[in-house]
Amino acid sequence: MTADAHAHEEHPTSTGLDSRKVAMWAFLGSETMFFGSLILVMLINKHNTLGVMLGHGDHMFEAGQGMLDLVLTSFTTFVLLTSSLAMVLALAAFRNRSLNWGRFWLMVVVAFGAIFLGGQVYEFTAFVREGLTPSTNLFAASFYMLVGFHGAHVAIGILWLVAVVYYSYRGRYQSADTWGVEMVGLYWHFVDLVWVAIFTLIYLI
Amino acid sequence: MATTTVSVRPNTYAGTAWSWITTVDHKRIAVLYFVTSLAFFALGGVEALLIRLQLSRPELDLVHPDRFAELFTMHGTTMVFLALMPLSAAFFNLLVPLMIGARDVAFPRLNALSYWVYLFGGIFLNISFIAGGAPAMGWFGYAPLTATEFADTHAVDFWAFGLQILGVSSILASINFIVTIINMRAPGMTFNRMPMFVWMTLITGFLIIFAFPVITIGLVLLLFDRYLGTSFFLYQGGGDPVLWQHLFWVFGHPEVYILILPAMGIVSDVLPTFSRKPLFGYAVVAYSGAAIALVGFGVWTHHMFTVGLGPVADTAFAISTMAVAVPTGVKIFNWIATLWGGSISLRTPMLFAIGFIAMFILGGLTGVSLGSPPVDTQVQDTYYVVAHLHYVLFGGTIFGLFAGIYFWFPKMTGRMLSEGWGKVHFWLMMIGFNLAFGPQHQLGIDGMPRRIHTYGADMGWDVWNLMSTVGAWTIGLSMLIFAINAVRSMRSGRDAGPDPWDGGTLEWSMSSPPPVYNFAEVPVVDDRYPVWKEKHGGGHTGAVVAEPPVADTEHDDEEPHIHMPNPSYWPILVAAGMVLAACGLIFHQVFVLLGALIFGISLIGWIEEPPG
User: What is the pLDDT of residues A27-37, one digit of tens each?
Assistant: First the structure.
């Protein structure tokens, strides 16, 4: 670490890893179980023979998935995945001390995230207009739950990114200590990765 | 004893109420955890005593059936989430930094936040008693008892939001302790040299961060069912009530190990001290703890053998359940081997630790019997299950935690608990416990269902029930003795000195209570029992020294200049905002906004505040 690094880096840790990074990994491990449970609930509902036996939504998943706009979501998925690239470029720029490029790429991530969220808002409102609300059937409930929770994570990520840009103007991340960018980057890549699973399971299969 | 040299107490706990509200010192937060969790323990205990009073004789009507359902639900919920887990967290807070040679945890403010979220969450959950009725569907909240149709008051909402809040507290605390243990160890304190309690804290932390998200999802689905009209757990809407059982027990079974592993860690550190021998099979004890945790994720449907999941599922989970007995048995044999040939001194902590082993073996044996689907089908939902779970969680966890309380009370407060009253406490608790829960095995085999409000005089259950009630009240008496002992000892107990038990791990190398900065100089560790090595040389021979080497506390006025984190009032505000928002979801939306506002502003304040 360079001499102008923050005070907390004066004490080396047992593993040499930044404590905040270890905490982030632990948190993401916890989040994996969170999304894993949600995805399993969705899959269980999809193959819920009890509901079918009772005459509920025999083909509700087929019908529901038929309503999905695959073209639109493929596009927003592409945008979201591309934002991960911008995130990588942002961190690289901050590490090279090119603050303005770093801020630019962070704003690209924000914009791409917003496009993704916009697509989701559009899809949700279209569904509601067509009469598909969370209480309609198990497909709708599972869909809103899973996609909604992911969307909330994206929204939190956008707020966090904006905060990082703001703090870059307040004098942070200007030394070798780019941990703030790295943290939001870890989170953002994780949220992207989760979307790959959700997109595959809900939209493609 | 070296009373004169240690009479200068570090001012670890001195200060105003404000200094406690804003504290980020792990030792003070430990005190807060101890006081709060023991208060909730008393509350859960009183609930249990009322349950036992109602069941003492057949056809009694001391407690209204509805109140009775609230009592057993809140007894279970309180004991698991508000008493035992936080009591373990109190030990994590007190001991982990001291044992690994750190000055505090990795994230001191986050640690304070965990505590305040826990406190407010606990209060929130118990407000339900005066706000239209407490939850009454049993501590595992089976669907459809939680459906609006059968629970139209806010009791279930209090329960669901309350558990969410407590989950946040547990996950944050666990992340903190995982990072602390991984990253804050003193030079030379390798994983292979960590005290067993630290090992078990680490494993418990991983269990919590992986198990709690599952119950979080379960509770979110439940709240969707109740607030948004979905049917995740309602068969009328095509949902599946059994899905709740899966989600609950995928969390619920690891939760059992979350409750027992810290106690196992405590016992693994108490036994060597009073046997004057290092822990036998150190590595195997650590790895079997990890094995228990790992297998613990694959046994959940043994809570659901009577659901009808089919012979394949039942067989597979019976096998995995019985497999847990292997690492558990390994631990027990290692503890016994630690005692073997040692020069055993039966002080109060040692009595509780040995009591733990004996009682936990009994609970483990009934656990293996319950792991067999045919047996389980016979005794499902009877008092046999109640007996089993109390033998592991009371006979195991609570005996282990009291071993820890008697062992580290001197370290925390600087004073000894009375040994005489401690032994009275132990024996009364031991007798009362077996009197209370031993007969319940017989009641269960006789077919007495759990959670019933009363029973007929012709069932032949009176004698066993009366015995059980007498036992429960004996436990209550023993707890009263403990409380008096604790309060009196805190005021006028014998001066403990830095090392009253001739301990071997790092926490015994400093004054009692430890100074604010814990270690004036960060220690360099080259042994599993560094303090023993320093006192007795490397051989760990069992010579008990009469006069423990006295730390040079007389020079305390020359406080070393050690930079410690600043106090902060943001954690309590963030916690208050969070819980206020939850209140709003039950009472009025205005509070949601207000809570979110407080939460947001405090979070910004937290970020803006220099970490110190």
Answer: 999 999 999 99
Long-range pairs of A28-33 with CB within 8 A, sequence gap ≥ 24: A28/A186, A28/A187, A28/A190, A29/B209, A29/B210, A30/B171, A30/B175, A30/B209, A30/B210, A30/B212, A30/B213, A31/A190, A31/A194, A31/B213, A33/B209, A33/B210, A33/B211, A33/B213, A33/B214
Identity (one letter) of the amino acid at A101? Answer: W
Mutating which of B232, B235, B607 best tests the A interface, going by the most A Cβ atoms within 10 A? B232
pLDDT at B2: 38
Angle in degrees, CA B561, A21, A30, rounded to 5: 120
Residue B4, classified by CB atoms within 10 Å of its CB into exposed (0-12), middle (13-18) or buried (19+), is exposed
Nearest-5° Cα angle at B210, B128 to B255: 50
What are the backbone dihedrals phi and psi of residue B609, each rounded to the nearest 5 degrees, phi first? -70, 130
Residue spans of the domains in chain B: they are 26-552, 566-612
DSSP label at residue A172: T
pLDDT confidence of residue B559: 54
Which tokens hold the place of B305?
Answer: 């053998």
> In the structure encoding, which two tokens stand for residue B215, read together?
């119950």
- The strand pairing partners of B495, in sequence order, are B415
Considering only the top CATH level, what class is B26-552? Answer: mainly alpha
Residues 6 or more apart in contact with residue A47 via CB below 8 angstroms: none
Long-range contacts of B335-339, Cβ-Cβ distance < 8 Å, separation of 24 or more? B335/B267, B335/B268, B335/B271, B335/B280, B337/B280, B337/B281, B338/B271, B338/B272, B338/B275, B338/B277, B338/B278, B338/B279, B338/B280, B339/B271, B339/B275
pLDDT tens-digit map of B438-476: 999 999 999 999 999 999 999 999 999 999 999 999 999
| Interior/surface letters A113-142, b for 16+ CB within 10 angstroms, e for the rest | bebbbebbeebbeebeeeebbbebbbbbbb
Numbered residues of chain A with Cβ closer than 8 Å to any chain B Cβ: 7-8, 13-15, 17, 19, 22-23, 26-27, 29-31, 33-34, 36-38, 41, 44-45, 48, 50-51, 54, 56-57, 60, 134-135, 137-138, 141, 145, 163
**Structural contact between residues B453 and B73, judged by C-beta atoms closer than 8 angstroms:** no
Provide the token pair at B104: 């505090």
How is domain A13-204 classified at the CATH fold level?
Four Helix Bundle (Hemerythrin (Met), subunit A) (1.20.120)
Which residue type is seen at B427?
A: W
pLDDT, tens digit, 9 for 90 and up, residues B113-146: 999 999 999 999 999 999 888 999 999 999 899 9
Give yes or no for residue B48 having a pLDDT over 90: yes
Domain ranges of chain A: 13-204
pLDDT at B108 over 60: yes
